[in-house]
Specification:
This protein is of the alpha+beta class. It has one domain: 3-Layer(aba) Sandwich (Aminopeptidase). The protein is 27% helix and 33% strand.
Protein backbone atom coordinates (compact mmCIF):
# COMPACT_ATOMS: atom_id res chain seq x y z
CA UNK A 1 0.00 0.00 0.00
CA UNK A 2 1.46 3.41 -0.94
CA UNK A 3 2.22 5.83 1.85
CA UNK A 4 -0.31 8.64 2.24
CA UNK A 5 0.85 12.09 1.18
CA UNK A 6 -0.95 13.68 4.14
CA UNK A 7 -2.15 12.80 7.60
CA UNK A 8 -4.82 14.35 9.79
CA UNK A 9 -3.94 15.43 13.29
CA UNK A 10 -5.17 17.70 16.03
CA UNK A 11 -4.49 21.41 15.49
CA UNK A 12 -1.67 22.59 17.76
CA UNK A 13 -0.67 25.97 19.13
CA UNK A 14 2.32 25.90 16.78
CA UNK A 15 -0.12 25.91 13.83
CA UNK A 16 -1.63 29.25 14.81
CA UNK A 17 0.91 31.44 12.92
CA UNK A 18 0.19 29.61 9.64
CA UNK A 19 -3.58 29.68 10.22
CA UNK A 20 -3.36 33.37 11.12
CA UNK A 21 -1.50 34.08 7.85
CA UNK A 22 -4.10 32.12 5.87
CA UNK A 23 -6.91 34.14 7.47
CA UNK A 24 -5.27 37.35 6.32
CA UNK A 25 -4.99 36.02 2.75
CA UNK A 26 -8.08 37.05 0.74
CA UNK A 27 -7.88 33.83 -1.33
CA UNK A 28 -8.16 31.73 1.84
CA UNK A 29 -11.85 32.17 2.39
CA UNK A 30 -12.95 30.66 -0.90
CA UNK A 31 -15.48 27.97 -0.06
CA UNK A 32 -14.06 27.56 3.42
CA UNK A 33 -16.19 29.83 5.59
CA UNK A 34 -14.13 30.33 8.69
CA UNK A 35 -15.43 31.40 12.07
CA UNK A 36 -13.92 29.35 14.87
CA UNK A 37 -11.02 31.57 15.85
CA UNK A 38 -12.67 34.97 15.84
CA UNK A 39 -11.40 38.06 14.08
CA UNK A 40 -8.84 37.47 11.35
CA UNK A 41 -6.42 39.96 12.81
CA UNK A 42 -6.72 38.93 16.45
CA UNK A 43 -3.86 36.48 16.99
CA UNK A 44 -4.38 36.30 20.79
CA UNK A 45 -8.08 35.49 20.38
CA UNK A 46 -7.17 32.62 18.04
CA UNK A 47 -4.88 31.11 20.69
CA UNK A 48 -7.57 31.44 23.38
CA UNK A 49 -10.20 29.87 21.14
CA UNK A 50 -7.92 26.90 20.43
CA UNK A 51 -7.39 26.46 24.18
CA UNK A 52 -11.17 26.33 24.64
CA UNK A 53 -11.50 23.72 21.88
CA UNK A 54 -8.78 21.58 23.45
CA UNK A 55 -10.20 21.83 26.99
CA UNK A 56 -13.73 21.03 25.84
CA UNK A 57 -12.62 18.08 23.74
CA UNK A 58 -13.90 19.76 20.57
CA UNK A 59 -10.56 19.76 18.77
CA UNK A 60 -11.66 16.66 16.86
CA UNK A 61 -14.06 18.90 14.92
CA UNK A 62 -11.17 20.86 13.50
CA UNK A 63 -8.07 19.03 12.27
CA UNK A 64 -4.78 19.93 10.62
CA UNK A 65 -3.76 18.44 7.28
CA UNK A 66 -0.05 17.71 7.47
CA UNK A 67 2.17 16.70 4.54
CA UNK A 68 3.90 13.45 5.54
CA UNK A 69 7.12 14.10 3.62
CA UNK A 70 8.13 17.04 5.84
CA UNK A 71 5.39 17.39 8.52
CA UNK A 72 4.36 20.74 7.01
CA UNK A 73 0.88 22.09 7.70
CA UNK A 74 -0.83 22.32 4.30
CA UNK A 75 -4.51 22.57 5.20
CA UNK A 76 -7.42 22.20 7.56
CA UNK A 77 -10.52 20.03 7.76
CA UNK A 78 -13.66 20.57 9.75
CA UNK A 79 -16.24 18.15 10.96
CA UNK A 80 -19.62 19.22 12.30
CA UNK A 81 -22.86 17.54 13.20
CA UNK A 82 -25.30 17.64 10.34
CA UNK A 83 -28.96 18.50 10.38
CA UNK A 84 -29.78 14.97 11.49
CA UNK A 85 -28.24 12.83 14.23
CA UNK A 86 -26.97 10.29 11.67
CA UNK A 87 -25.29 12.94 9.49
CA UNK A 88 -22.00 14.87 9.57
CA UNK A 89 -20.87 17.88 7.57
CA UNK A 90 -17.26 18.22 6.44
CA UNK A 91 -15.17 20.91 4.85
CA UNK A 92 -11.58 20.90 3.59
CA UNK A 93 -9.13 23.72 2.90
CA UNK A 94 -5.72 23.31 1.29
CA UNK A 95 -3.48 26.37 1.31
CA UNK A 96 -2.84 27.95 -2.07
CA UNK A 97 0.68 26.67 -2.83
CA UNK A 98 -0.30 23.07 -1.98
CA UNK A 99 -3.39 22.85 -4.19
CA UNK A 100 -3.55 20.53 -7.18
CA UNK A 101 -1.35 17.86 -5.57
CA UNK A 102 -4.06 15.52 -4.28
CA UNK A 103 -3.78 16.62 -0.65
CA UNK A 104 -7.44 17.68 -0.45
CA UNK A 105 -8.72 14.41 -1.90
CA UNK A 106 -6.54 12.39 0.44
CA UNK A 107 -7.57 14.46 3.49
CA UNK A 108 -11.25 14.04 2.60
CA UNK A 109 -10.77 10.32 2.06
CA UNK A 110 -9.08 9.90 5.45
CA UNK A 111 -11.77 11.93 7.21
CA UNK A 112 -14.63 9.99 5.61
CA UNK A 113 -12.96 6.67 6.43
CA UNK A 114 -12.47 7.78 10.04
CA UNK A 115 -16.07 8.98 10.43
CA UNK A 116 -17.64 5.81 9.06
CA UNK A 117 -15.34 3.56 11.13
CA UNK A 118 -15.67 5.39 14.46
CA UNK A 119 -19.19 6.85 14.40
CA UNK A 120 -21.33 3.80 13.79
CA UNK A 121 -24.60 5.77 13.84
CA UNK A 122 -23.48 8.04 10.99
CA UNK A 123 -25.01 7.01 7.67
CA UNK A 124 -24.45 10.21 5.69
CA UNK A 125 -21.76 12.88 5.25
CA UNK A 126 -22.45 16.20 3.53
CA UNK A 127 -20.17 18.81 1.97
CA UNK A 128 -20.73 21.92 -0.13
CA UNK A 129 -18.56 23.90 -2.52
CA UNK A 130 -18.95 26.85 -4.84
CA UNK A 131 -20.34 26.10 -8.28
CA UNK A 132 -17.15 27.80 -9.50
CA UNK A 133 -14.80 25.43 -7.62
CA UNK A 134 -14.43 22.61 -10.12
CA UNK A 135 -11.32 21.06 -8.43
CA UNK A 136 -13.22 20.67 -5.15
CA UNK A 137 -16.20 19.15 -6.95
CA UNK A 138 -13.92 16.63 -8.70
CA UNK A 139 -12.21 15.75 -5.39
CA UNK A 140 -15.57 15.05 -3.74
CA UNK A 141 -16.79 12.97 -6.66
CA UNK A 142 -13.52 11.01 -6.73
CA UNK A 143 -14.32 9.46 -3.35
CA UNK A 144 -18.00 8.84 -4.09
CA UNK A 145 -19.86 12.02 -3.12
CA UNK A 146 -22.85 12.78 -5.31
CA UNK A 147 -24.25 16.17 -6.16
CA UNK A 148 -27.70 16.64 -4.64
CA UNK A 149 -28.50 20.12 -5.83
CA UNK A 150 -27.67 23.79 -5.87
CA UNK A 151 -27.98 26.09 -2.87
CA UNK A 152 -28.57 29.57 -4.24
CA UNK A 153 -26.69 32.68 -3.15
CA UNK A 154 -24.72 31.12 -0.31
CA UNK A 155 -21.55 33.22 -0.39
CA UNK A 156 -20.96 36.88 -1.19
CA UNK A 157 -17.59 37.14 -2.88
CA UNK A 158 -15.93 39.76 -5.04
CA UNK A 159 -19.07 41.91 -5.13
CA UNK A 160 -21.56 39.24 -6.14
CA UNK A 161 -23.45 36.23 -4.79
CA UNK A 162 -22.30 32.72 -5.65
CA UNK A 163 -24.23 29.48 -5.52
CA UNK A 164 -23.00 26.26 -3.90
CA UNK A 165 -23.32 22.63 -4.88
CA UNK A 166 -24.49 20.37 -2.05
CA UNK A 167 -22.83 16.96 -2.03
CA UNK A 168 -23.58 13.89 0.07
CA UNK A 169 -22.06 10.48 0.60
CA UNK A 170 -24.04 7.62 2.09
CA UNK A 171 -22.36 4.82 4.01
CA UNK A 172 -21.45 2.11 1.49
CA UNK A 173 -20.78 4.57 -1.35
CA UNK A 174 -17.32 5.61 -0.15
CA UNK A 175 -14.41 4.93 -2.53
CA UNK A 176 -11.02 5.22 -0.81
CA UNK A 177 -8.77 7.40 -3.00
Amino acid sequence: MPRSAVRLRQVRHGDIPAIHAWLKDPTFHGDFLFGWFGAEDDFTAMKKKLDVFLKQGQARRFLAVERTSDNMLVGLVLLQKGRRADCRYMGVYVETSSRGKGFGSEAMSQLVDYIFKTEKSVDRIEAATSTMNIPSQKALEKIGFRSEGIKRKTAFRDGHWEDSVLYALAKGEFRRS
